[in-house]
Amino acid sequence: MGRQSPLEDGTLSMRQKALLKRDITKEHLSNLKAGYVSIHEASLHKTGIRGRKTYLFWALVGFLLILALGNLIVTCFLLGVLRLANGMKNLELLPDENIIKFYGDIDLNMTIKRDGLLEAFAEDGMTIESQEGEVHLVFSNSSEAIHMDPIKTQVDNVNSFVVYDPETGEEIFSTDYPNFGLPKGVKQINIKQAIARSISSPVGSNLEFKSPSKLRLKGNEGTKMDSKNMIVTAMTDLFLKAVEGAIVLEAYDGVRIDVKNVNLARSSPTDEAQFQLCLCATTGQIFRVPIPLNNARRTEKITCESAILHDNICDEK
Q1: What are the transmembrane regions (predicted)?
Q2: What does the domain layout of the chain look like in residue ranges?
Q3: Chain segment 247-297, per-residue pLDDT in tens
Q4: CA distance 201 to 217
Q5: Among residues 245, 295, 298, which one has the least CA distance to residue 275?
Q6: Torsion angle (degrees, nearest 10) of CA 25, 28, 34, 38
């Protein structure tokens, strides 16, 4: 076994240890100075953003900050309108059943439903409202539509319109031919045109036809009106026309014309020729007689009595 060094066996004195430590430190410092190069700070290459690039950098930072702030505002707005929390308060999506459930009052400008089916919950009804406007139900690629406003409900271009009781499925109202009946509580119906075989009112009730401008009753095979008491009035003119056949006015107690309310022929500075309306006393046939312009100056005036009648329309058959 070799001999140990004085440092290992502890035979060095305190002075020898101090000298040995100083030599080791000096050798270490000399090793560090071997790779050291003295340089000047002014000659070093400066890194980072300086000059105009600084303004562009802060401008980009400001733009991103404004964009993030706008996104935050929009997000808060959507959270408030849609009432989003853990879910959506007024809306629930059921993709498995292909259903969208709405809760409470929903404000929608336009709703597009592919199958056209709008339903409410079994225990609650569904109310569709429009504030100071109308409600339009329009079917795509067709002219069928339903328009509702505070005054009327209008159905356009449909073959039939049926309303059912949602609970019992009973038919409440229908326009299907041949029987078209108004539901209880409805006393009048406003339509532009109706094609029907017959129109009648319940026993003991009046049937009235009114129009603000023009009312036309037409039958392809004739028109027959039967009533206990029939009154026909017009603000301007009343036309009775038969394309083929005749016009027959028949009543049990006779037909009366209120001549007090019949408008007189208008006066004209050019003296237009007029017609005189005449009535056969025996048959009730109505006809007209042309009155010439100089009838007032004639010795024998043209009247109903002087009319030459063809086919003996006033003779009883």
Answers
A1: 55-82
A2: 1-37, 49-107, 112-197, 213-317
A3: 777 777 777 777 666 655 555 555 566 788 888 877 777 788 888 888 778
A4: 17
A5: 295
A6: -60
